[in-house]
Amino acid sequence: MRTSQLYAPTLREVPAEAEVISHKLMLRAGMIRKAAGGLYTYLPLAWRTIRKIEQIIREEMDAAGGQEIAMPIVQPSELWKETGRWEVYGDEMFRLNDRHGREFCLGPTHEEMVTSIVRDEVRSYKQLPLMLYQIQNKYRDEIRPRFGLMRGREFIMKDLYSFDKDEEGMRISYKKMYDAYTNVFTRCGLTFRPVEADNGAIGGGGSHEFTVLADAGESSIAYCEKCDYAASDEKAELKVIRAAEEEALPLEKAATPGTKTIALVAEYLKVPVEKTIKAVAYQTEKDEVVLAFVRGDHEANEVKILNAVGAIALRMADEAAIRAVGGEPGFMSPIGVRKGTKIVVDSTVMEMVNAVAGANEADAHYINVVPKRDFNAAEPIVADIRLVQAGDPCPHCGAPLKMTRGIEAGQVFMLGTKYSEALHATFLDESGKEKPLVMGCYGIGVGRTMAAAIEQNNDKDGIIWPRAIAPFEVVVVPVNAKVPEQLALAEKIYGELKAAGVDVLLDDRKERAGVKFKDCDLIGYPLRVTVGPKAVEEGQIELHVRKTGETVIEPEASYLVKAQELLKNL
Ligand code: ATP
Ligand code: MG
C-alpha cells in the first residue's frame, strides 16, 4: 500500500468532542469518523487493526476448540421472552417490528439464539463439549455512549458459548477460555489483569474480567501486591470490621437541626464519621423501595446490594417513595420504618456499638444505636454491601489492597444451566437421563481492545502501536519523493520488505519530510525506514523505532535483517 492512495484523513486539531486520548488520536489519525452518537465508521487504518485483532482472537478461539459460526443480528422477540430478558433488557435493547408487526431486536448478545440452535440439534452427551463463536456487530442503546469505540451503541464483539454435560466440564471449558483470553491480550501487546468479577444480570457461577490497565478506564479494580488477589470494585469481598469493645448505652433521640449529610451530623454531634450510619435509598425495577445502610465513612456497593435483594436493577429512590415506607430523606435508619420494607445492612454496621443513625423524622438522629439490638425489628438482610477502598484488607491474605483503573476488554462467565433450563435445552447423559446443558459465555470487545491499546501506548506525538496490531508494521519514507533516486530506492526497499512478509506501507507523498514524519508519529507505525540523500549516495539506511525514539543507521546490505530483528521486540 502507498500513502498517496491510502484514505487516512489526518487532522491537525484535536476534535472538541473527544474526551479520552484513544478517541482523540483515532479521530486525528484518520482512523474513525462519527456517524451519530456511539456509531462510527472504521476507515482503512482502523479496519486493518480490527482485522488483526480479530485474527489473533480467531486463532486462539480455534486453538481452544471453538468453531466459528455467524448468527443473525436480527433476533425474534419470542426467544427473549422465553428467558424473560425481553423485559429485563429495557431501554438498552434496540427493538424493531417487521412489516407484519412482529417484534425483533438487534442482538445485544446471543445466549438465547445460540442456545436455541443447540437445543434443536444436540441430543446426546456424545456431542459434547461444544464451543461455538462468532465475531460480529452487537447493538446496545447505551445511556451514555462515549469515549469513541470504548462505549459505542454498535460495536464489534467476539462471543463464544460453551456447552458441557456437567459442571466439571463447564469448568474445563472456562479454564480453556481463560487461558485463550490470556493469550489474546498478551499477543495484542497489552498490559492487563484478569480480575474476579460480578456475574451481573447474566446469572450463573464465577466470572473474570480481563482488564487493560489504563487511567482512562471506567473500571476500578482492587488488587493485592502480596498475593494474587484481584477483583473489580463491584466484586471485591470485604471482611467485617469489628468495633472496639465498649459498653452499650441506652438508645436516645437527639435534635440535630439541618444535618442532612453524614459530615454535618458528625460535626454537630462531635462524633467521628466512623461512628455514624449512612443510608442510601433505592427503588427496584418493580418500584419496591430498598433501604441500604453502611458505615458513615464507607460507600454503598450497588452491585452487592442488587445481589443481596435479588433485584435486576436499582435506581435512586424518589422522596415520595421513601416517605411512603416511613422514611425521612436525610434522616433515615431502619428504626421505625414501615414493616415489610426491604432493609439491607452492611455486616460491619451490625458490629457497631453506640453509633449515630437517623430517627426517620426531620432534624433528629438516634444516638447510642446498637444495630444488633435496635435494628432487628426491621428484619434486615445482613450482607457485605460496601464498596472496597484502598487500604482495605485483602480477603485472601489480609495485606492492604491497592486500587487501580482499567478498561474491561473481555469477560468470561460460568452460566451453569440458567439459559438451558429457561429454553429447555437438554441432552441425554450416559445413563439415558435427560439433563440441561451446562453453559459458559465469553466476550471480547474488539473495538474496545483497539481503543485500550491506544490508551496504554501513546505519547504527545501520537499512537505507539504494539507491532502485532499496528495497521502497518513498517513505513518507508523517502525524505523527498520528488527526487527520483530517493523514490526509486524507497520503492526497492518497500518491495524487499514486502517480499520478506513484512506488513509495509510506502509514504510516496510529495510532501515535506516534516509533514510526513509527523503523520507517521501520529498514526504510530512501529518502525520507520527513512530514505534520504545519505541512503542514495552512501547506502546508509535509517531505521527509526517509534516506541523508543531510537535511530539506527544500517548499510543497505543488512537493513532488512536489522529491521526484522527490531520488529521482534515491538
Ligand atoms: P460494560 O460493563 O463496560 O458495559 P458489559 O459488561 O456490559 O460491559 P459484556 O456483556 O461483558 O459487556 O460484553 C463483552 C465485551 O464487549 C466487554 O468486555 C467489552 O469489551 C465489550 N463491550 C461491551 N459493551 C460495549 C460497548 N458499548 N462498546 C464497545 N464495547 C463494548
Ligand atoms: Mg462485562
Briefly, what is this?
The protein is of the alpha+beta class and 570 residues long. It folds into three domains: 3-236 and 403-454, Bira Bifunctional Protein, Domain 2 (BirA Bifunctional Protein, domain 2, 2-Layer Sandwich), CATH 3.30.930; 252-383, YbaK/aminoacyl-tRNA synthetase-associated domain (YbaK protein, Alpha-Beta Complex); 472-568, 3-Layer(aba) Sandwich (Rossmann fold), CATH 3.40.50.800.
What are the segments in which pLDDT stays under 50 over at least 5 consecutive residues?
Answer: none
Number of strands: 31
Radius of gyration: 29 Å
N-C termini distance:
21 Å
CATH superfamily descriptor of the largest domain: Bira Bifunctional Protein, Domain 2
* Percentage of β-strand residues: 25-35%
If classified by CATH, what would the architecture of the largest domain be?
2-Layer Sandwich
Largest sheet: 9 strands, mixed
Residues in helix, %? 25-40%
**Inertia-based shape:** globular
**Whole-number mean pLDDT:** 94
Kindly report the CATH topology of the largest domain: BirA Bifunctional Protein, domain 2
**SS field, number of helical segments:** 17
Oligomer state equals: single chain
Content-based structural category: alpha+beta
The count of domains is 3
CATH class of the largest domain: Alpha Beta
Which ligands does the model contain, each kind named once?
Answer: adenosine-5'-triphosphate, magnesium ion
Can you put this structure into words, describing what you see?
By secondary structure, the chain is α+β, with helices and mostly antiparallel strands. The protein folds into three domains: 3-236 and 403-454, Bira Bifunctional Protein, Domain 2 (BirA Bifunctional Protein, domain 2), CATH 3.30.930.10; 252-383, YbaK protein; 472-568, Rossmann fold (3-Layer(aba) Sandwich), CATH 3.40.50. Helix content is 28%, strand content 28%. The strands form eight sheets. Strands 3, 7, 8, 9, 10, 11, 12, 21 and 24 form a nine-stranded mixed sheet that branches. The two termini are 21 Å apart. It binds adenosine-5'-triphosphate and magnesium ion.
